[in-house]
Design goal:
- By secondary structure, the protein is mainly beta.
- About 10% of the residues lie in helices and about 35% in strands.
- The chain has helices spanning about 165-170, 185-195, 205-210, 260-270; strands at about 10, 15, 30, 35, 40-45, 55-60, 65-70, 75-80, 85-90, 90-95, 100-105, 105-110, 120-125, 130, 130-135, 140, 145-150, 155, 180, 185, 215, 230, 235-240, 245-250, 255-260, 275-279.
- Strands 21-26-22-23-24-25 form a 6-stranded antiparallel sheet, sandwiched between helices.
- Strand 24 and strand 25 (about 255-260) form a beta hairpin.
- The relative contact order is 0.11.
């Protein structure tokens, strides 16, 4: 069987994505069945158990392809970044109306009525997608049978601007392995969400980002805002020529600290900077 990256290629001896026919051996090849994430964030896990490692998160309204389903778990491939893993089937719904808008703030609420006092309300993170069907007062009616404050939404594909400013809105967010929301995210999740928010495609993990994003800079090149600094298994964003913005396990949250401090701390653990990339 070909040695394909299992994070991005869905296959095992008994079943594989039809797109891999001719590249690997499998008992059968199947086409994915389109589904989407419901109103709550779905953990994408390595194995189909609640205690398995979270690889990433699929955000509300995000579309994906389901290739297998058993014992309450679906084996899926995300449409946006191609990531493969297992999600609880109960978190998924059939694809309904095409999403027209996405959340443009770190977090907002889905209300049952166009009234800020109504309960219960559900949190929607940045980049959660909804289909707006109507307007009522200051709220957008969405296909998920609820209402979102209109100023917290923007049309899909309208994102632009400074991705570092987006990342800065996540300062002090807890570090959470595989996370992609204001309730918790990891280093590469911060980079991916921030770039996606301004309309730039970005893969999920730091090694993928190092391989595909930007142009490598000489070590002596002066850093500037928006440069990405990579270590083995880690990435941070330059807020200016000296300060690094990153989600990290040392502080267990998103911080902005002198790059020199992060470099020294990592070097002491035998992990030097591997590259600096400019977008």
């Amino acid at each position: 069987m070909a040695n394909l990256d299992r994070r991005l290629n869905l296959y095992r001896p008994d079943l594989a994505d039809v797109a891999l026919r001719g590249r690997i051996e499998a008992a059968r090849f199947v086409e994915g069945r389109p589904m989407q994430v419901g109103c709550t964030v779905a953990s994408l896990r390595r194995q189909p158990t609640a205690t398995s490692m979270q690889l990433t998160e699929a955000l509300p309204g995000e579309t994906l392809q389901v290739f297998d389903e058993a014992d309450g778990w679906a084996w899926v491939k995300l449409d946006r970044d191609g990531y493969v893993g297992h999600v609880e089937a109960a978190r998924l719904t059939p694809v309904s109306a095409a999403a027209s808008h996405e959340v443009a703030v770190p977090s907002t609420l889905l209300y049952p009525k166009a009234d800020l006092k109504t309960q219960p309300a559900t949190f929607l993170p940045m980049l959660a997608r909804v289909a707006v069907t109507d307007e009522e007062k200051d709220y957008a009616a969405v296909a998920a049978n609820g209402f979102v404050f209109s100023k917290h939404l923007r049309a899909i594909s309208s994102g632009s601007g400074d991705f570092v400013s987006v990342a800065e809105r996540f300062l002090h967010t807890p570090y959470y392995w595989g996370g992609k929301t204001v309730h918790g995210l990891d280093c590469s999740g911060l980079v991916q969400v921030s770039l996606h928010a301004v309309g730039v495609d970005c893969p999920r993990d730091s090694d993928m980002q190092e391989a595909s994003l930007g142009v490598a800079l000489p070590q002596a090149e002066k850093r500037r805002r928006g440069d990405l600094v990579f270590w083995d298994g880690h990435v941070g964003i330059m807020a200016d020529s000296e300060m690094l913005l990153h989600a990290n396990g040392f502080d267990m949250m998103v911080v902005c600290e002198p790059l020199a401090d992060a470099v020294a701390r990592s070097a002491a653990k035998g992990k030097p900077v591997t590259s600096v990339k400019r977008l």
